[in-house]
Amino acid sequence: MDVELAKTFLEIMQSGTFAKAAERLHVTQTTVTARVQTLEQQLNCTLFIRNRLGARLTPEGERFARYARELISVWQAAQHACQHPDESLLTPLALGAEHSLWNPVMVEWLAALQAAERFQLSSHVATTDVLYEDIRQQRLNAALVHSARYYPDLQIEQVAEEKLIHVASTQQATPDLYIDWGEEFDQQFDRCLPFSRQTAMYYSHGPLALHVMLRQGGNGYFRSRVVQPHLETGALRIIERSPEFHYPIYLVSRPERQPEDFDEVKQSLHRVIEQTEQWLI
Question: Boundaries of each HTH lysR-type domain copy (predicted)?
């Protein structure tokens, strides 16, 4: 398939009209229309619905969008490999991580792999659902997550044991802050009920809640490695007799179609976790 057809499709999708797409592509609107017609004939479906407001995707167009992006990505990678033959000898490796694990674990892991000068690296920070889907669809080789979901085609390996502990500001211990650490934490919390979820201030992002608590006061559950420096300086204190919750870190991968040296990739991760002393978020 002509790559220009995929580029034209994506430009229409992003701009919303055939006219704007033609302007951005520096071609006539007639050319854009002809390209779409050719693409629709090749796919045997209608991709856009056109009206006075512009062009919107049909259900078939929405399904094709992901493949169009992948087609462009593969084409660009092929161009790069031909123009930089030395880099084409590197092993492609795509890794992902949840938002709470990118710093320092993902940062240090990528740095160690890059230093090995053997991998063509790409990285992706996303939600747990997206990471699992990307691994199952083979868009990622592996990902770091906090939630273990057991699928027959995936391999789950616990690589670290983290704890969520109840801490409070030494300046002001209120209000209660509830941080969404995932479905497993929700279940553990509801069994113990250290404080009411309904009346607490809700945060979907732990680092944000921690920064607010350090400035304005409050109490909540945070990762033990992250709050340890603040406990040592006296900015925070542990709330006695509050339950602690396990918060393990898992490496999720799909065993088949991994690079030959994937075991070395995993060993590198284990070394990073062992050597990392201060977790920033």
Answer: 1-58
